[in-house]
What we know:
Blueprint: H1 3-7, H2 10-21, H3 26-33, H4 37-49, E1 53-57, E2 67-71, E3 74-78, E4 87-91, H5 92-95, H6 106-147, H7 152-162, H8 167-177, H9 184-199
Antiparallel strand pairs: 1-2, 3-4
Helix pairs in contact: 2-4, 3-4, 6-7, 7-8, 7-9
Amino acid sequence: MEPEKVLASRTRVKIAHLVSIRPRTLSELAELTGISIQGVLKHLAKLEGQGLVQEVKVQTGRMSVRKVYAPKRYLLGDYSTPGFSVIKFTDGSRAAQPGPNARADLEGMAEDMMLLRRRVREEARRLGRTIDELAAEQARLGEALKSMDLDDEERLILEALFTEESVERGRELISKHYGLKDGTRSIDRALSKATRSARK
């Protein structure tokens, strides 16, 4: 599977997500995506080629449905929110292994699934807000460093130092990748200069 080919189209992602939840008819997919049946068929062909979707013939006497589209090996969960994409590929063959409670109460399992889906969406929204806050802080840091009396090298050192997970990790990164001749002394000098500049 080549995820980039699936992710290249939001409609394709939506179809793969819908089919991963449960088998869907062609008309249902057309209605849910807002595109023509021919358009859905084109996307399904690409998803089949990626091993995400398969056509399944249905044996039924009470319904007019003759075939549905179901997940093949992989499942795709799309938990995106406006401005933030969260997509998860899962190996469906492993996920489908029955556990000790495989014959548990169906209603209970359905309720658990709905609850978990809701929680995933809430977490995605929360994470999206956190990322927005982080981006705003990064912009503030950039503006603060620009306003200080620093040379380009010092500014670069401080940007690398403060945008890592910790100051220690920043020091390691700078020492390893930035080719500083005096290593820690340049970092300490830049920090000291920034601190003095911030106090003015």
